[in-house]
Design brief:
The chain is mostly helical. The chain has 15 helices and three strands. β1 and β2 form a beta hairpin. The two termini are about 25 Å apart.
């Protein structure tokens, strides 16, 4: 029987890391050994892992700096809540079905938005692309501040002002959504993380992924051998757009209320910090950084005087561990045969 190669083991490592973490957390939860505050962070951690991995596809693999992921996330969150409410009130769907439909709706809406934004935006490069995607995120947030959605029987009614529409309000502009039925689960978050890893890693290791990385490394050389630059840049951008939308639906249905202000450009910057600290192009690093850097500030609240100091030290330590050549050389010595293996993941 052929033994699995080191390359195969490395490719499966992100999946194994997530599965082991999920099993440990489930054991701790079932044994009531996990603090309540930590338990409440499990779903947000899954959501931020999805965001970090999807943004790494754009920033690390495609080589384009996008700051519009908060816009995709907001569209997914609000469309997911509307879908879940409609499924519950009209079809009396159970909670798991509501959550599934909400995640699918959030992904579809974000994908449509990604195509509409990607067509004009991906003709830009560098700082210009970052500025325009940041502007699109803010435009989406301000549009959401003007939208009102009511459920009247089996009919959804929309308005762009504070009109007194008939029915039950679901989404009310700057007030956002209130009285959301919290149906998100840690298991759903785990499955969404696994789905994200399957999509992103399979794209990276495919022929299309190699073309995307070739464009990132040398655009002129890629064009000279017949690679369609616009096509593959659009592919990376559109694949990364539905994942924040699905994450937004999961995240939104975890809280009882939220507003468009929760999805400002600072949310995109926060995700970018996770990607950079975990290592640009390093999917495993994005998983680790998103987990550690989201949980750590919450755990340090009891040390109010030194909280940000410790957080800053940990940020520097994570960056050094994931990006330094010294750490990589040390890993090469510990793990035989690691040297020369340049596969992503």
């Amino acid at each position: 029987m052929k033994k699995p190669s080191l390359k195969t083991a490395k490719q499966l490592f992100p999946f194994g890391l997530v599965v082991v973490a999920f099993i440990i957390c489930q054991i701790l939860v079932s044994a009531n050994a996990m603090p309540r505050t930590t338990k409440s962070l499990l779903i947000p951690v899954c959501a931020y892992i999805v965001m970090a991995v999807s943004l790494n596809l754009t920033v690390g693999i495609s080589g384009e700096l996008s700051l519009g992921h908060a816009g995709f996330m907001s569209v997914g969150a609000f469309s997911g809540v509307v879908m879940a409410t409609y499924a519950r009130e009209v079809f009396a769907a159970p909670a798991p079905v509501q959550l599934l439909l909400a995640i699918i709706a959030g992904g579809i809406m974000a994908a449509i938005l990604g195509v509409l934004i990607g067509i004009p935006v991906l003709r830009l490069r560098g700082d210009y692309l970052a500025i325009v995607t940041l502007a699109f995120g803010e435009i989406i947030r301000n549009i959401l501040n003007c939208i009102y959605i009511y459920l009247d029987g089996a009919t959804l009614r929309f308005a762009f002002n504070n009109a007194n529409l008939p029915g039950t309000p679901i989404f009310r502009g700057p007030t956002g959504v209130t009285s959301v039925q919290r149906i998100s689960t840690f298991t759903a978050g785990f499955l969404l993380v696994m789905f994200t890893l399957i999509v992103v890693l399979n794209l990276i290791r495919s022929r299309s992924g190699r073309a995307i990385m070739a464009i990132r490394d040398n655009r002129i050389a890629a064009e000279s051998v017949g690679i369609d630059v616009t096509k593959y840049k659009m592919m990376a951008f559109v694949v990364s757009a539905p994942l924040p939308g699905m994450r937004g639906a999961l995240f939104g249905l975890h809280y009882s209320a939220f507003t468009p202000a929760n999805f400002s450009f600072t949310a995109s910057i926060l995700i970018l910090v996770y990607v950079v600290r975990g290592g640009i192009g390093n999917i495993t690093g994005s998983i680790s950084a998103a987990t550690i850097l989201y949980i750590l500030p919450e755990k340090l609240r009891q040390f109010s005087d030194y909280r940000m100091l410790v957080y800053a030290i940990v940020l520097i330590a994570v960056m050094l561990i994931t990006n330094s050549s010294g750490a990589k050389n040390l890993l090469m010595r510990i793990i035989p045969g690691r040297k020369g293996d340049k596969d992503n993941g």
